[in-house]
Design a protein that fits this description.
- The protein has one domain.
- Helix content is 13%, strand content 47%.
- The protein contains four helices and 18 strands.
Length: 327
Amino acid sequence: MKKSHVAKLAAFALVLPLLAGCDQNTEPIEPAPGGVTTEVEAMKYFATNDEFVVNAEATMDDGEVAPVEFGTFGKIDADMTPLRFGRFVSGMTRTVEIETEPGDTIAIAHVTRTVNGVLKVRGVNAAQETVLVEKPFTDQSVRNVVFRRMAREQNRFWLNWVPVATSLVHGATERPANTVNITQIQIETPSGRTIEINDPEQFWLRYRWRYMFLHQRCQEDVPELQPGEQLKVRVTVESAAANPDVVVLRYGYALMNKRRTRLELVSEEMNGGLYTRVYETSQVRPLYMHFHRGFFNMAVDAMTEETLYDDTAPYAVSWWGVPYRVF
């Protein structure tokens, strides 16, 4: 979304009560986004162009083959020892469905994305040769955005609905390759607040800094962090693989300022043929917030070990995207 649109959208919402008695024929303060001619089209536009969405897509597209943190993963008994890896997105399609609730004051935008690309892994094979393995992938993700009606202006129709809350981004490899699944994320902020999420598509995070939103679905505010603060993250993963999965945390902004840190396995148990494993940040691999202010998306990315360590095994990934704000 253009920053001018974001700023004016927020400003307009604050002065709506003052405009109630104004001339309804007043020209729009800014033209509607290109191609947007109805309220529904406006909601679809904002649901796919806000800063959280743009950052979420950039977070999952590495655009380069890079180490997880400081270098190699370490040698294990595998076909290949990965040194660097990166996800390259080559295509993306988005569909948006709008569901308006009774009363015409709340609407939910269901955003579905299909992402195509290639995972590139540079490593050393059993013959001690440096190789580059490429694995094509198709991921799907879902995100829901809550809109609230702020007005019924005819000449400013594209400002009548504003986004006030969001679910997480819930992404995974297309079936049947999604053999690893994230089942829970716990985030502990520096203030001691703990956010526990078990259903990424139905856990609502409110945009507290924009508008008062008293919808019954809202559980928490979007995490708001200060630059340099330390964040603790705990992730539960369910997997059919005997070997532990690789879980990394992606956050940051722009190509040169992205962060990708590996979470440590802290517990494991087997139940009904599936492994439940818990990973978390630690003092060895702490997560310190970057100093760039704005709206971002932190992605928890769980990959089967074979995705990186086996040059012939298919790509299998599960990922959740958590919006956050640095102010």
